[in-house]
Amino acid sequence: MKTKNEYTISIILQLIQLQTKDKNHQLFQFKSLISASQYNYLYTLLLSYIKLGTKVLDWGCGNGHFSYFLIQSGYQTSGYAFSPRPSLEVLQSHDYKFFQGNDSDPVKLPYADETFDAVVSVGVLEHVRETGGHELDSLREISRILTMGGYFICYHLPNQFSWIEAISRLLPNKFNHAYRYLPTDIHNLCQESGLEVLELRAYGFLPRNFLGNLPSHISNSAQITRFYNAADNILSRLFSGLCQNYWFVARKQVR
């Protein structure tokens, strides 16, 4: 039987293979093993907190890479996004319940109260103001559709003091996030939306995505990836205040 780490790596390798075979999937984060390993801990979080077979919403599912993980892992998976249904073959099944929203109502979700055991945001919450919404309104809506005691897991939430973001803002035509956060912001937003923060951690001191452009014998090397991951983990603990992102796990408070 595979360990959690072995299993999550196997999913990452599947997504890398899918992107290699068909660039139209637009799995840009999965150009290489080093860049894709940024999601290893996200997968472990889900497997640790969320019971297999339960109902999970991939909120803002984008290209569908996280929905792919959920379905392959045996969760009852739904995806919601303003963009069309992701092109990955496994996500064309009726078992994958996809709903395409629109920015005429950027906050309201098309689900009944207490529909999901977990909702996951992967690089989404920080963008809601760009489409006319607000983080607090979105979190209140997420809290509404969570079962009592259900979990909200947020990943890739930009850190206000990220050194990577700071450099990106100085470079022409380099993407950077308009909205960035501190731990106090996260706790306040969750408290006001009926969510209790259980865990919160800064991560990602070293950059990842650009490494997909390196020669494949480097960026897909398992040995180099292990070394890079280990270095990133150490530096993230030493310099947590300068990391690129936060992840946090929150639970809907039982009345």
Brief summary of the model shown:
The chain is of the alpha/beta class and 255 residues long. The protein has 9 helices and 7 strands. It has one domain (4-252): Rossmann fold.
Topology of this structure?
Layout: H1 4-21, H2 33-36, H3 40-49, E1 55-59, H4 65-73, E2 76-81, E3 97-100, E4 116-122, H5 135-145, E5 146-158, H6 163-170, H7 183-192, E6 195-203, H8 216-219, H9 222-238, E7 245-252
Parallel strand pairs: 1-2, 1-4, 2-3, 4-5
Antiparallel strand pairs: 5-7, 6-7
The CATH fourth-level homologous superfamily: Vaccinia Virus protein VP39
What would CATH call the class?
Alpha Beta
Our count of helices gives 9
Largest sheet: 7 strands, mixed
Shape: globular
Overall number of domains: 1
| End-to-end distance | 39 Å
Q: Could you state the oligomeric state of the chains shown?
A: single chain
| Low-pLDDT regions | none
On the 0-100 scale, what is the average pLDDT?
Answer: 95
What fraction, in percent, of the residue positions are helical?
25-40%
Per CATH, the architecture is 3-Layer(aba) Sandwich
* Rg result: 18 Å
CATH fold title? Rossmann fold
Helix/strand-derived class?
alpha/beta
